Amino acid sequence: MATVLEDVGRGTIAHLDYVGSLNIQLWATLRAMGSALPLVGNRYRWQAAVRQMLQIGVDALPMVALMAICTGFILAMQGASELRRFGAIHYVIDLVAVGFTRELGPLLTAIAVSGRSGSSFAAEIGTMKVTEELDSLRVMALEPVEFLLAPKYLAALISVPCLSIISNVCGILAGGLFMFFSTRLDPLLYLRYVLDSIVLRDVITGLIKSVAFATIIAHVGCLEGFRVRGGPDSVGRSTTSAVVKSTFLVIVADAVFTAIFYFTVKS
Amino acid sequence: MPIISIRDLVVQYDGHRILEGLNLDIEHGETMVLLGGSGSGKSTLLRQILALERPKSGAILVKGIDITRCSAAELKSVRRSIGVAFQSAALFNSLSVEDNVALPLREHTRLAPSIIELVVWMKLAVVGLADFGKFHPQELSGGMKKRAAVARALALEPEILVLDEPSAGLDPIVAAELDELILLLKEAFQMTVIVVTHEMPSAFRIADRIAMLYNGRFTSIGSKDEIKASQNPRVRQFLDRIPEDMTKTSAVAAYFGKYLQTQEASE
User: Fold this and answer.
1) Mutate to test the interface with B, among A121, A124, A140 (most CBs of B within 10 A)
2) In chain A, count of helices (H) and strands (E)?
């Protein structure tokens, strides 16, 4: 019995320690963010942030677009097969448009970025830790949070919402293609229905979610890198852990945000 | 006043004492070699001097500032006066050698890019790597990496140069070349040099004074001649290369002797 309680206690403390570390890291990064901003900050940090934006955003674009197109088709086809029975196939347009802007666009993007960039952050920082490069930065009076994390976080904050918007557009276009081939619906008419079905609030809630997802991915990835202990094998473990934890936390955060937006609409 | 003063330094990890009340003064312009075997605590002491870890108790004064208790701004100013070359060189693999050397100059000075380029070339020329600036660290040999790390450590013309195991893993000729480089740098720049090593020939070539560590305590501190003449059993054991536990060594030797006899008998 004592062992079970000890295990529960140890697990709880470990999880609290992790959440606490994430919070401390987040505040430290927010304090250091000024250095990564253009014009007012350090130009080398801003250049690093731009490089990160290319890696997180531009390089992920084909993958995110393809994922969104496939999911748009799937959603439209699955929706159509049920709605057709009730003669309500035109509701597929609402389903795809609202589903993507509120939910699927940001979520799919976050999962893709978590797999690509979250793991890459953990591997990069973990390797730097193993090879004493982080110590080397500190003794050169350069703080790793400002030097490494701030540009990555800024890049994620800009890239992930942009990718989410592109994902929304691709998913909705895929729905349009399905409607054209299945019901010969004119693409321009489809577009008008889409614009009628989504409201600004849907887009804003989607973007708020994607900012939260970017925060989770950047901070979990970097924290996993900073927590590497030992040799190269632990870098591999931290990379896996970064993807698993950030994906899990993204879905939890999505549920929380969706609940908040749902209940605030009702009230 | 000594440039570095260590007072009653105690370091403990998970209840296990690593350093036990160390006291040491390092004077301006002297080369202090921290000598000791594996697990003696010399790398831990080095990390304390660089403020990479906090001690359990005691103080380390660098240029009169207690780096165990000072503010972040004070620590930053102290670190700018220390150049460090790590055992693994810890060069940034994503940057070329010249960008590695230029990094502290870009971050901490307002020098024009052309001046930085010139300073970098000079620092690389000092360590004999003027023609290797465009190379990446992974394209250099072990000895060249260490020299590049020394060039980076010299970038801001530090008052204190810290070298962690400079000759570890190098052949005797390259190790001797590095020793001569350290002597040259000390003479040319009048720096205080701290070298952590367990290589006896290197220590006796470059040291003004040697502090010998054993089990987290200084067993002997003195000039090269004093250390050579020391009758302290731990110093003698280290100088005369006497194994730690003769009982265990002879038991292992007896076991191998017996094994070889049985092998010969079976043949």
Assistant:
1) A140
2) 12, 0
Lookup: tokens for B200: 């006896």
Token pair belonging to A72:
């748009």
B7 in A contact zone (CB under 8 Å): no
Cβ distance B17 to B216 under 8 Å? yes
d(CA A189, CA A232): 56
Contact A28, A145 (CB under 8 A): yes
- Put simply, whether B79 touches A (Cβ < 8 Å) is yes
Q: What is the pLDDT of residues A126-178, one digit of tens each?
A: 999 998 999 999 999 999 999 999 999 999 999 999 999 999 999 999 999 99
Gap between the Cα atoms of B98 and B10, Å rounded: 39
The two tokens of residue A94 are 């609402």
Inter-chain Cβ pairs, chain A and chain B, closer than 8 A: 47
pLDDT in tens, A191-220: 999 999 999 999 999 999 999 999 999 999
Q: How far apart are CA B59 and CA B7, in angstroms?
A: 5
| Closest chain B C-alpha to A6 CA, distance in angstroms | 19
Provide the 3-class DSSP secondary structure of residue B156.
coil
Do residues A111 and A217 touch, judged by C-beta distance below 8 A?
no
* Closest CB to A132 among B77, B80, B88: B88
ipTM of the complex: 0.83
Q: Taking a C-beta distance cutoff of 8 angstroms, is the pair B198, B36 a contact?
A: yes
* CA distances in angstroms from A121 to A14, A117, A148, listed in the order given: 22, 6, 9
CA distance A153 to B163: 34
| For chain A, domain boundaries | 2-266
Chain B: give the shortest CA distance to residue A8, in Å. 22
Say yes or no: B93 contacts chain A, CB-CB below 8 A: yes
Per CB-CB distance under 8 Å, the chain A contacts of B87 are 132
Phi/psi region, residue A162 (left: phi>0; alpha: psi -120 to 50; beta: rest), is alpha
Answer whether B144's CB lies under 8 Å from B172's CB.
no
pTM over 0.95: no
In B150-245 the beta strands, taken as DSSP E runs, fall at: 160-164, 192-197, 209-214, 217-223
Q: Are A107 and A219 in contact (CB under 8 A)?
A: no
Q: Is A31 on the interface with B (CB under 8 A)?
A: no
Question: Whole-angstrom Cα distance, residue B72 to residue B82?
Answer: 15
Domain B4-266 falls under CATH 3.90.76.10: no
| Distance separating alpha carbons of residues A56 and A217, to the nearest angstrom | 11
Minimal C-alpha gap between A34 and chain B (Å): 15
